[in-house]
Amino acid sequence: MIIMSVPRFWRKQIARYNLVGTHCKKCDEYFYPPRNMCPACRREGEIEDYKFSGNGEVVTFTVIHTAAEGFENQTPYVLGIIKLDEGPSLTSQIICEPETVKIGMKVKPVFRKLGQAGERGMIYYGTKFVPE
Amino acid sequence: MRDVAIIGVKNTTFGELWDRSFRDVVVEAGVGAVSDAGVVGEKIDAMFVGNMSGGQFVEQEHIGALIADYSGLAKDIHVPSTRVEAACASGGLALRQGIYSVASGMDDIVIAAGAEKMTDVPSPKASSALAAAADREWEGIMGATFPGLYAMIARMHMHKYGTTSEQLARVAVKNHQNGQHNPIAQYKTPITVESVLKSIMVADPLHIFDCSPITDGASAVVLAPADVAHEYTDTPIYVKATAQASDTIALHDRRDITTLDASVAAGKRAYEMAGLQPKDIDLVEVHDCFTIAEICAIEDLGFAKKGEGGIVTQNGETAIGGRIPVNTSGGLKSCGHPVGATGVKQAVEIVEQLRGEAGKRQVDGAEIGMTHNVGGSGATAVVHIFSRNR
């Protein structure tokens, strides 16, 4: 079971569902996951929301056989670091046959169920990736 | 700032210590180190204890006070006791805080300890507690595990530099080779490359024998100003450098997936502080939470060129008797990895080596040793350099 309370998940729901991150107008750097402070400009930065296209490529990946709590029924699953076209990288699952995933593979985002808090609990949704 | 020396050390046995509690192991290590140093409780000015997650592993916080109490240092003498946390680097950081307090002149005799009791919860719960060292909101929620994160480092290292699964396996084989001679080690059985490669896959390309185990244990050292160290022991070991560095909490935000920039930065600071270079180091204890982590560590600390850690390992250069013996204790892989204790255990191993008391693991003529302790997938790195000579 994924342990995350409803408010904790909900407050970043838009970022998770729609790949909304942030952008610093001062240095033109993009952030996903979103950051409220630009690490380069710090207090001088000017942060705004930014919706990513979600197109990107696989930087590195693994096939998970021993799952994290809450992911046991998904094994084997492909976990990867995806570099988005705008620059930032994120961690997500790549939905494909494990033997077909490759470093440098182009991927696009899909809206998927991440998990569920037990039989009657909240269902968590978010962004995973598929080969383009 | 004053020079600091280690005057006493002690590790408990590492392993699944079902008959001993968190407080039992801490007291055993603390009392052992104090006896080794020949100091009495009234002389102790402060204590620091590294502990990653008493809250999750034994549902106990307020660790500092608890251990002061059960060490007999709370009632009547009220010794200040502070818990330090930096995930798997908690022990190294507790040691660093202890060194600070002695170097500053605020305290004279200080205990730096580390402890974790990980087997009082089922292993999925332990894995989940460990996952808290990564970014829960942006890595954990997507199904990332710790082996998974290091597997992604390994995959990239293989892609970029041609590192092989066999080279990774050789790290585990070498560390078990060393660990069989360490009386405190969790696993004292030698293993082969074949057994590593045939063991179950946890997160491709990492097999279960590429991973450090879940372990109970505690370690402690006693620190003193170098000027008075000889009053307590004939073989004080001097702290030549203490360094620490931070990096992004999430692996996906790193400059380079195959380099732990925090290790590079902490290593550089440590070499500068000690006025030494990698070639001056006689042996090193690195943070091999996974086999790939040792390969990255020896590169990041300057013992191998970037990308050549696998080859250097395969050539036997990191074995006892090789160019730069790595993890003579057996490392996290064979000796075990009670996360809060590991950083202190590494220092205990170096002290035993520099004193010439390491038995069959002894590196001949060892004068200068290094420790390298990492938190998470590389967001914290702590590096220390120790010497027989002041």
From TrEMBL, chain A:
The record, for InterPro entries, names: ChsH2_C, ChsH2_Znr, NA-bd_OB-fold, Thioester_dehydratase-like
Q: Where are the transmembrane segments?
A: none
Q: At the top level of its lineage, which domain of life is listed?
A: Archaea
- Quote the SUPFAM superfamilies the UniProt record gives: Nucleic acid-binding proteins (SSF50249)
Domain (ChsH2 C-terminal OB-fold): give its ranges. Answer: 52-112
- Pfam families from the UniProt entry: OB_ChsH2_C, zf-ChsH2
Q: Residue limits of the ChsH2 rubredoxin-like zinc ribbon domain?
A: 14-44
Protein name in the entry:
Transcriptional regulator
TrEMBL record, chain B:
Return the CDD domains for the record: SCP-x_thiolase
Q: Does the keyword Transferase apply?
A: yes
Q: Note the superkingdom of the native organism.
A: Archaea
Domain Thiolase C-terminal: start-end pairs: 243-388
- What is a biological process (GO) this protein takes part in? isoprenoid biosynthetic process
For this protein, the record's InterPro entries field holds: Thiolase (IPR002155), Thiolase-like (IPR016039), Thiolase_C_2 (IPR055140), Thiolase_N (IPR020616)
Offer one Pfam family short name for this entry: Thiolase_C_1
Under which name does UniProt file this protein?
Acetyl-CoA C-acetyltransferase
> Which species does the entry assign this protein to?
Methanolobus vulcani
